[in-house]
UniProtKB/TrEMBL annotation:
It comes from Aliarcobacter skirrowii. This is histidine kinase. The lineage of its organism: Bacteria, Pseudomonadati, Campylobacterota, Epsilonproteobacteria, Campylobacterales. GO terms for cellular component: membrane. Gene3D superfamilies: 1.10.287.130, Histidine kinase-like ATPase, C-terminal domain. It comes from the Bacteria.
Length: 410
């Protein structure tokens, strides 16, 4: 175990505390027994003096005195059975020549034994009690022991997620973002830290997946202009082909700039600068990027204003237009508005499966089903601008709707 770890320090503190508790208990218990023995000796000192005065005679006055003091007197024949008790405990012993004085505790009662050459007798203290403060000490010791042990175990349970978290942080460097940490309703610092780490790992996973989607779509988008460029290079070099080749390079440059902007968005490194723009200006920009003929688009929209980032929003519109035409039976689309909603309508086959799957990375695998930059990126561009992307299929027509997110409605 790492000597610098919190768990090791907590365990060491627990062991030291328990040892100190045990030593304190032993000391207090020993001291308590000593004080109790001393108290007994002090209690019976007057009785000892009275017995000393009796010498060899036990008269009636002495017996009456013992009775009044709640003492019982036993002589030789009755002493032996009592002293044979295995539970007897010697508290005090004094030898004075041939005389011996002892104090015993038997079954919670105190006995005083006087042994002399000619006579021996035993005095029982009827009012003596076996109660001792030692019971309090034992009780307090076990209470403290269990409380400290409970707190130690509870602390270990609280620190256990921290140990798991340490292992997960190490694995995070190997891009192992998927892990499970037992959920807890507690609100302590370690639980909060664990939840935040899990959220951070999830964000890192999303960024990784977004970059993979981004790279995959770069390859897809660049493939067409590169192929066209290769074909043009093999043709006779004339003014017309040179102009087409120039358009290809302009298209490549536009795509690279577009990718750079989108990369900043999906990496969440860019705070969007938004202003009010007319829808017509955004559509014109999207058409210019696509080098699209106006005849392919039927305009049924009102020239509403939108508070967005011009470049990114144009890219989102551009991709919706591109996909709508590409997958349309008539290779055309209609753009219309209903209030603040912008609708992109084409005639074609209905999307397969749940629409939400198209908004997730890696949801579409084959080239036949690919959506260029993908609805995933379109959705995130719109989301960053405060809009949602909805889908419906009515009367043989696909309808993609850009709708203002209610959270951003003022």
């Amino acid at each position: 175990m790492n000597k610098d770890s919190i768990i090791f320090s907590s365990t060491l503190n627990y062991v030291i505390t328990i040892l100190l508790l045990i030593f304190s208990f032993i000391f207090l218990l020993t001291n308590e027994n000593y004080l109790k023995d001393k108290e007994l000796i002090d209690k019976y000192r007057p009785l000892f003096k009275v017995v000393e005065k009796q010498r060899h005679n036990i008269d009636e006055n002495f017996k009456s005195f013992l009775k009044d003091m709640n003492y019982e007197l036993y002589f030789d024949k009755d002493i032996k059975p009592i002293l044979k008790n295995r539970n007897k405990k010697l508290i005090f012993l004094r030898n004075r020549g041939k005389e011996v004085f002892k104090i015993f505790v038997i079954d919670g009662k105190n006995y005083l034994l006087f042994e002399r050459p000619k006579v021996s007798f035993l005095i029982k203290d009827i009012e003596s009690s076996s109660f001792s403060n030692s019971y309090y000490l034992v009780f307090v010791f076990f209470i403290l022991f269990f409380v400290l042990t409970f707190l130690y175990i509870r602390t270990l349970k609280q620190l256990l997620p921290l140990k798991i978290l340490k292992d997960k942080v190490i694995n995070l460097g190997d891009e192992k973002f998927d892990f499970e940490i037992k959920s807890s309703s507690k609100n302590d610092e370690i639980t909060i830290l664990t939840k935040e780490f899990k959220n951070s790992a999830k964000k890192l996973k999303n960024i990784k997946e977004s970059r993979n989607v981004f790279i995959r779509n770069i390859m897809h988008e660049l493939k067409t202009p590169i192929t066209k460029g290769k074909i043009l290079l093999q043709l006779e070099q004339n003014e017309e082909n040179s102009e087409k080749l120039k358009m290809v390079f302009n298209r490549l440059e536009a795509l690279i700039n577009e990718f750079a902007t989108i990369e900043e968005l999906i990496s969440q490194n860019k705070i969007l600068e938004k202003k009010s723009y007319f829808l017509e200006d955004l559509l014109d920009e999207a058409k210019d990027i696509l080098m699209l003929e106006d005849s392919l688009v039927k305009n049924s929209y009102e020239n509403i204003k939108l508070f967005v980032n011009f470049r990114l929003f144009s890219i989102a519109i551009k991709n919706l237009i591109d996909n709508a035409i590409k997958y349309s039976n008539s290779k055309s689309l209609e753009i219309k508005t209903i209030g603040d909603d912008i609708l992109f309508i084409n005639d074609g086959e209905k999307l397969k499966g749940d629409f939400q799957k198209y908004l997730e990375p890696f949801s579409i695998k084959t080239s036949n089903e690919s959506f260029g930059l993908g609805l995933y990126i379109v959705f995130n561009i719109l989301k960053a601008n405060g809009y949602n992307l909805l889908y419906d299929y009515i009367d043989g027509k696909n309808i993609f709707t850009i709708k203002k997110d209610i959270k951003f409605t003022t």
